[in-house]
Amino acid sequence: MILYRFNSQPIEGIINPLDGLQDERLEMITTEGMLQKAPYTEVKALCVAVAGTKPTLFTENSFFERRPKLAGLWIRFFLRDGDMLEGLLSHNLLDWPDHGYWITPPRAGPGRQRVFLPRSSLSGTEMLGVIGTHRTMKARLRQESAKSHGQQLPMFDE
To answer: N or C: which end of the chain has fewer CB within 10 A?
Structure first.
């Protein structure tokens, strides 16, 4: 993981998935073995990345070049220091923790798989789109039921 703070260089380390994100702060062990306790007011972002990758979250590809293909809420986040970052939020509101948001960033890959943005790091948000599936759940269930029972697909019904 790469920890981005407002007033310092990015730090690479590991977070305990069970209790690394606490109510008031996050705790991370750096690659040097030091325990970092960062209050959310100092955290700009936390990026899930493969060890040894460059911290490029805010320096390149901060925006989607075209409409994303994954389902979710397409949001532009405005950070307190003037930086902007686009990302996809889950449609399920229960996936949103009280102290921040887990997003899928543009050009997600080994160096930037998921990003955690604390609410305290944001100055605003803008919804750019709602991206979902083309078929409703009811239509999908009907089609799967027809396939499993060997019946004709509903699109041929009159």
So the answer is: C
Domain coverage including residue 102: 2-52+61-156
Closest CA to 86 of 114, 112, 105, 107: 105
In whole angstroms, how large is the CA radius of gyration of the chain?
20
pTM of the model: 0.72
Question: With contact defined as beta carbons under 8 Å apart, do 9 and 2 qualify?
Answer: no
Number of domains in the chain: 1
Give the Cα separation of 132 and 153 in Å (integer): 23
**Cβ distance 13 to 3 under 8 Å?**
yes
Integer distance in angstroms from the first to the last C-alpha of the chain?
55
Measured CA to CA in angstroms, residue 155 lies from 30, 46, 151 at distances of 57, 46, 12
Q: String of b and e for 147-157 (b: at least 16 CB within 10 Å)?
A: eeeeeeeeeee
